[in-house]
């Protein structure tokens, strides 16, 4: 009898099998395949019995979505997935599990249908990804995200931990939360948020900045190094970018500062900063090098 843990292991191996492959490759059906040792496929009759339990079925889908989204984010940091996108992707994997439970459909047909649906979903939710992944390339064009030491971030953003106004929010803190952990060790009141977290602590939250509620007049200091503003800039420069959504969230972030609070970030966003009310916000922008600027905005 198939065990749940065995199924979860099979999902992990399946994702690993297709890691780094380009969904837009011209001969996708020869590139993407099911892992041959996949226990999900070894006994489809038993699989159908297990998945007749809705709680088990939903649990497997939840697990798969979490793993797949992490793989997308690792591959390209500028992939954005909202709740609507997640709901549609959930239907993609619900359909896959339904077809795997139906022994009348061949595995080759299931594979072709699934990866076609997955490609369609990606093109719908993130059309810019198709533009950078040419159909003659088997490997995906990655745009990976790097993590930086706490010391480097403090230097780049001109932050003195002893002078920070609390509470502190680290937006896009990174999966290891280096800076947030450093500040926590200084016994500062800090919260770190990121959509990918390895470090699990009560003061860390695995959530995207679009889902996070920025309450007005709440934060003494907000920090985001090569995270929110980098994504904002990327969307600003793209014809299909979410410029309006980012602009609205940017203003939410500023309004969530307490009076006297500050927002430290890089890269700078001069196209937004120059339009801020000078009676409400003080803008301090500094050129670090010819390609890099950092900004500190203080709420007056």
From TrEMBL:
| SUPFAM superfamilies linked | S-adenosyl-L-methionine-dependent methyltransferases
Q: Which domain of life is it from?
A: Bacteria
InterPro entries (UniProt xref) = SAM-dependent_MTases_sf (IPR029063)
Q: What is the protein's given name?
A: Uncharacterized protein
